Amino acid sequence: MISAAIEGALQRRANTEDIVAAASGATLIETIEGFFDIEAAWKELEAGCKGAILFQTFDWCRNCVEHSLNHNAVEPRIFAIWRGGELSALLPLCLKDNQGLKVLTGLSEPFQQYTDMLIAPGEDAPAVFGEFLKLMRRAGADYLHLGQVREDSTLFAAMEGRVPVSGEADAAPYVALSDWPDFDSYYREAVKAKTRKNMRNARNRLERTAPPKHHAARGGELLAHVIDRSFAGREAWLERQGLTSRAFRDTGFGGFVERFKRPDHIGIETIAFSLTHEDKPIADQWGLLYRGRYYAFMACWDCEYEQVGPGKLHLGSILEECFTQGIETADFMIPAARYKLTWATDAVPVRDHVLALSLRGVIHNRLWLDFGRPVAKKLAYSLPTELRSKLFRILMPSRD
């Protein structure tokens, strides 16, 4: 059922041209209706942007907003620059409650994987961010959180160090598939000889009973099954390891990923991969496609096959399929796990950035983010897995 907020926004779209024509300079959009009103201008802007911007596209954000409206209140804070009635820059954020503090963060957090800014060619990115920063200080937040910012992104360059890094360093491994004419060339030139030998040995162990088979689909039953298995498998893996995840702590995450079983309804291309042995799935992965880039969103594997490294083996088959389908870049995203680095040709540093916007934010950042959290995390990782898992559930409760 479509929400009343969305219905109202759809009814107002006839006025969008008037709204855009009247807009100029830096503006802050704070309503769901305002979000839907700028759809056409937003899509026109993103068409001229480069980079890993999927999570700042209108269609991605729309799916998150529509999903959230059925679970929680949504407080958008969308920062925009207009030039002559045209949208020239955009940073889609929202206001969330974090244990009594107001945090200004990505519009689709905790489901988005990168935070970036859309900006038209010719715009001065640091100057635009400076204008946004002025508005952020009046947006009603205690602190600004820009999660998982790539160092090759427009947003990183625009910040010019004005928003300090926070937390541990990570990286997003990737393969620029367009650098090679085909998979065989990539495999021969970019993958280490020792790795190729290990992959042959792993595949040979499987072939003693049956040859492994690889499957790919952009819809249908395979996509649905891979999404289900990956979600359950990832959740179980986090529990076994005593780890936590912002997305999995959100009780709405399961419902959100359900949307991707019907890519024809959500406006986002989705693809699933499955490696089977004796007709049994031993590794699954699914992700998103946008402008020739594959974003590896979620993966899992069968623990019974751990000795052959199913996740690592599967990545090779995924890359081969990506070459077949003409995909230009395979983005494995964070974390920079060892099995990803086996196949990746490079990795982009990714960090969180946090800036206090109020006195309460200053106190929170200094006492918790800069001191308390690192100490607590270090102590937690020194505990046995079961105790660590219980501790994370207490310290980092679900965002309902």
Could you characterize the architecture of this molecule?
With 400 residues, the protein is α+β, with helices and mostly antiparallel strands. It folds into two domains: 4-163, Gcn5-related N-acetyltransferase (GNAT) (Aminopeptidase); 173-349, Aminopeptidase, CATH 3.40.630. 43% of the residues lie in helices and 26% in strands. Strands 1, 2, 3, 4, 5, 6, 7, 8, 9, 10, 11, 12 and 13 form a 13-stranded mixed sheet that branches. The two termini are 21 Å apart.
Regarding quaternary structure, what we see is single chain
**So, the CATH homologous superfamily of the largest domain?**
Gcn5-related N-acetyltransferase (GNAT)
Count of helical regions: 17
Roughly how many Å is the radius of gyration?
22 Å
End-to-end separation in angstroms reads 21 Å
Beta-strand portion reads 25-35%
Find the structural class using helix and strand composition: alpha+beta
Number of E-state strands = 13
Brief synopsis:
The protein is α+β, with helices and mostly antiparallel strands. 43% of the residues lie in helices and 26% in strands. Strand 3 (86-98) and strand 4 (101-106) form a beta hairpin.
